[in-house]
Structure formats: C-alpha cells, structure tokens
Amino acid sequence: MQFAEIFDNCSAVATYSDDVQKVYGRETKEYDEIMTAWSELIGGGMDMPAYGVSLDSLTRKEMKCGKWVEFIFEGCCSYNGMPYEKLLVKTERGFYGFNIIRFNSSEGYSGRCFYYQLNDKTMQNFVEIIENY
Fold first, then answer.
1. What is the dihedral of CA 127, 65, 32, 30, to 10 degrees?
2. Segments of the chain assigned E as strands
3. Does this model's pTM top 0.85?
C-alpha cells in the first residue's frame, strides 16, 4: 500500500483551530474539500523514516494553539507496522514536510510518528482551505 492510499479509508476529518474542534463526515462538502486539498498536498511527496515520538500530554497541550487536522478511521488500521485509529497533523504555511501523529485508544497520541516530505511545495494551499473551517 502507498502512503496516500491510507486516506481512502478515512471516515471523517476534524479540524482544530485554537482548541475548537469541528468534525466533518464523508457525506459533507467540507470533508470533500479538505480531502481533495490533502490529496493535492501529498501528491508527489514521499513518506520518510521518522524519528519523532509523540507524548500524549504534550500533544494535547500543543493542540490548544494553532491549526490542526485529524483524519479519523473506523477501527484500527496499520501502515509500516504502526497501528493507528486517527492521524493528526499540525498545519503551518511554510512546512515542506511534517510529522503525522498516530492516535490509539489505548495510548492516546503516544508513540512513533510518520514523517512526510512534500518535496517542491509547502502546506500553503492546504492551510488556506483548513482556515475556512
């Protein structure tokens, strides 16, 4: 499975803006717009070995500021041997790559992250879409 394919199984997407959460299901226009922008963002990029490790308490504290997007899946999924139920990303206009923080019911946002390199683009366009929600 390619990295981009894991998002085909996403059942909802949540946005966080300064600790305010909004959730959009597959049937919504917002979900379609966010997922289309996400596909465009990660197109041409590549997943890389990640050295980042998330600690649940620190991640939850960080989520209170800034813009975040979370991809929600039905049940437990796995990529490269690392299980997840949700995938969380901090969004910043100038990011050329980013950590993707895994969430599991038993551990929260704790554990190794994925890392994704965008190559010749930044998150600029994706952040503009997220800011609308």
1. -110
2. 10-17, 20-25, 46-48, 53-54, 67-79, 82-91, 97-103, 111-112, 114-117
3. yes
Tokens read off for 96: 């050329």
With bands split at pLDDT 50, 70 and 90, how would you rate the model's confidence at 2? confident
pLDDT tens-place string over residues 48-77: 988 889 999 999 999 999 999 999 999 999
Cα 78 to chain centroid distance, Å, stands at: 15
Closest to 93 in 3D by CA, of 56, 115, 70, 121 = 121
d(CA 113, CA 45): 17
* Predicted local confidence at residue 50, as pLDDT: 81
Q: How many CB atoms sit inside 10 A of residue 51's CB?
A: 9
Q: Are 125 and 41 in contact (CB under 8 A)?
A: yes
Structure tokens at 25: 């299901």
Q: Determine the pLDDT at residue 116.
A: 95
